[in-house]
Write a structure and sequence with these properties.
Length: 481
C-alpha cells in the first residue's frame, strides 16, 4: 500500500514516498468535508496559521452540501449548484484530498484513502477530526435497493426533481390508464423532517407543473407518505405537527401512519397494513445511521455506531477516558446535550455547525496549550418548508408560525446559514428571480442517460428500430428517466 508521510499532501507522490520525515507543523486530517468538516477546518485555520498547523480535508465530493435546502432543490426552487459550497473556494489555506476514507487506524494514526480512480493510499496525521456524517438507514425490504432512491445528497435531490417532471411528460402522452396511474404515483417512506419537506415540495412543484399539460389534471397526481410512527415531524410539538399533517392532507397527500413498507418489487408497493398499489417513484427518507467506516475503525462507538465524544468534542471511551488526538461531531457522533442532561444532541445542521465551531476552537486551543471549553447550545427551534410560500416553524419553544410567515422564517434562517457569502447571494438572487419570473418546471429529458441517443444512433438500423419499439412495461426506478 502506498504511504504518504510528506508534510504537504500530494497524492501523485504517494507511491514513491520515501521513509517518513518529521513534520515541521502538526497535520490535522479532517474526514468529511460536509457541515462539520468544512466549518471546523475553517475555524481551525482562522485560529491557527499555516506555520502552526497543516490541515487536510478528505471527501469523495469536491463540495459541501447544505442539506436543509435539498427539498427545495427537488422542487426546482433552488438551483442545485447554489446549495453546495465548493471546497476549493470555501477552504482557502487548507489542502483537499478527493477520495473516500476507507480505513481509520487511530492507533497508528493512519488513514486509508480510496480515490475515485487509482489505488488506495495512506496518509498519516497528528490530529484527527471525524465529520463523516450519516448514511441512509435502509432495511432488507424486497425491491427497495432496486427501485428506491435516497434523499441525502444533491445528486439524489436533482434526480427526484427530474424524475417527477419527466413522469408528468411521459404520462401526458400515455393512454394506458394503469400505466399512467403508476407513473403519476409518487411514494415517500419516512415522515421525519427530510421526508415531509421532500414530499411537500415535490407535490407543490408537480401541482404547479401539471397546469402546463392539457391531458393531465391535479387529480391525476397521487402522493403517498408511509410512516412507521403514529405521527409525523417528531422534531415539532404535537399541535404544530398536526397542523402540518392537516395542511398536507388538504392538498391531497395520502398518509399511511403506523405503517411500514413490506415490499416494492418492480414498483408494486405493499404495506404492512395490506395496502397495495403501483408506483414508479419511491423515495426513502426513513432515517439515517452513522457512517459505517467509523464502526469498522479502532475508535470507540456507542450501540448505534456513533463516535462517543465528550462535550469538548474530544473522542472518549465509554468510561469517559479521552482518546488522545481524536475529535468528532455532527451526525456521526453522540454529542452529550448539556441543555438536556442525559440526552444527546439531535443530528441536525443547527447543532452540526455550532459543534464544528466549538471543535475548531478546542482543537486550536489544545495545539496552543490553552484550556478547552464545552459545547452547549439551546435549540433555536425548528423550521420546515411545506412548499412555495407554505411552512411551519417553532422558535425558542414559544413563537409559532404557520403558512407564509413560517416559510419566510425558513428561508431567512437557512439562507443565512448557507456557507459563503457568494452562495447566500446566489440563493437570494435565485429566489428573487423565481418570484419575478415564476418557477421553471421544464424536464431535461434523458439527462441521466445522455448517451442513450448516441448509442441508438450507433446501432445498425434494424436493431435500433427493434429497440425503440420494445414496449416499456416495468417500473423505471428513479434516476433512470
Ligand atoms: C434532506 C435533508 C434535510 C435536512 N433538513 C434539515 C433542516 O431543515 N434543519 C437542520 O438543522 N438539519 C437538517 N438536515 C440535517 C443536516 O443536514 C445534518 O444533520 C448535517 O448536515 C450533519 O452534518 P455532518 O457534517 O455530520 O454530515 P454531512 O454534512 O452529511 O457531511 C458528511 C460528509 O462526509 C462525506 N463522507 C461520507 N463518507 C465519507 C468517507 N468515507 N470519506 C470521506 N468523506 C466522506 C460526505 O461526502 C459529506 O461531505 C437535513 C438533512 C437532510 C438529508
Amino acid at each position: 500500500m502506498p504511504q504518504n508521510d510528506l508534510t504537504s499532501v500530494s497524492p501523485a507522490q504517494n507511491s514513491t514516498s520515501p521513509a517518513p520525515r518529521a513534520r515541521k507543523v502538526p497535520r490535522i486530517v479532517v474526514l468529511g468535508g460536509g457541515t462539520v468538516g468544512l466549518y471546523s477546518a475553517r475555524r481551525v485555520r482562522k485560529r491557527l496559521g499555516r506555520q502552526d498547523a497543516a490541515i487536510v480535508v478528505v471527501d469523495p465530493r469536491p463540495y459541501m452540501t447544505y442539506a436543509p435546502f435539498l427539498p427545495e432543490v427537488a422542487a426546482g426552487s433552488i438551483d442545485p449548484r447554489n446549495v453546495v459550497a465548493p471546497h476549493r473556494k470555501a477552504l482557502k489555506g487548507i489542502d483537499v484530498l478527493q477520495g473516500k476514507a476507507t480505513k481509520i487506524d487511530h492507533g497508528a494514526k493512519r488513514i486509508e484513502i480510496t480515490p475515485q480512480e487509482g489505488e488506495p493510499y495512506e496518509i498519516s496525521y497528528d490530529q484527527l477530526v471525524v465529520g463523516l456524517g450519516s448514511v441512509s438507514r435502509t432495511l432488507p425490504i424486497p425491491g427497495l435497493a432496486e427501485q428506491a432512491i435516497g434523499f441525502k445528497n444533491v445528486e439524489e435531490a436533482v434526480a427526484v426533481r427530474n424524475h417527477v417532471v419527466n413522469r408528468l411528460d411521459v404520462a401526458s402522452s400515455t393512454w394506458d390508464p394503469e400505466l399512467r396511474k403508476r407513473m403519476l404515483t409518487f411514494t415517500f417512506i419516512g415522515g421525519g423532517f427530510a421526508g415531509i419537506e421532500a414530499i411537500a415540495e415535490a407535490e407543490d412543484m408537480a401541482r404547479s407543473a401539471v397546469k402546463q399539460y392539457d391531458s393531465l389534471d391535479v387529480s391525476d397526481l397521487r402522493f403517498v407518505m408511509i410512516e412507521g410512527a403514529g405521527r409525523i415531524l417528531p422534531e415539532l410539538s404535537e399541535p404544530m405537527a398536526l397542523y402540518a399533517l392537516e395542511q398536507l392532507k388538504q392538498r391531497g397527500i395520502e398518509f399511511h401512519l403506523s405503517t411500514f413498507l413490506s415490499s416494492c418489487v418492480d414498483g408494486h408497493v405493499v404495506t404492512s397494513t395490506g395496502v397495495e398499489f403501483d408506483s414508479e417513484t419511491i423515495v426513502w427518507t426513513a432515517g439515517v445511521k452513522a457512517n459505517p467506516v467509523i464502526g469498522e475503525s479502532d475508535l470507540p462507538t456507542d450501540k448505534m455506531g456513533r463516535l462517543t465524544v465528550l462535550p469538548t468534542l474530544q473522542v472518549a471511551d465509554e468510561d469517559g477516558n479521552v482518546v488522545p488526538d481524536a475529535w468528532g461531531a455532527g451526525d456521526c457522533a453522540a454529542v452529550p446535550d448539556l441543555v438536556n442532561p442525559g440526552k444527546f444532541c439531535p443530528p441536525n445542521a443547527q447543532h452540526a455547525i455550532r459543534e464544528a465551531w466549538k471543535l475548531g476552537d478546542n482543537l486550536a486551543a489544545q495545539i496552543k496549550g490553552e484550556a478547552l471549553s464545552e459545547y452547549k447550545h439551546k435549540s433555536v427551534g425548528t423550521v420546515a418548508s411545506l412548499g412555495l410560500y407554505k411552512g411551519v416553524a417553532e422558535l425558542f419553544g414559544t413563537f409559532k408560525f404557520k403558512g407564509f410567515p413560517a416559510w419566510v422564517v425558513h428561508r431567512t434562517y437557512h439562507g443565512g446559514a448557507m456557507p459563503t457569502f457568494n452562495r447566500k447571494l446566489r440563493i437570494f438572487m435565485g429566489w428573487f428571480d423565481q418570484f419575478v419570473m415564476s418557477r421553471e418546471t421544464v424536464s431535461l429529458g434523458s439527462i441521466h442517460d445522455p448517451r442513450a441517443e448516441f448509442r441508438a444512433a450507433s446501432l445498425p438500423p434494424k436493431q435500433a428500430v427493434a429497440k425503440e419499439s420494445t414496449p416499456e412495461t416495468k417500473a423505471e426506478p428513479v434516476g433512470k428517466s
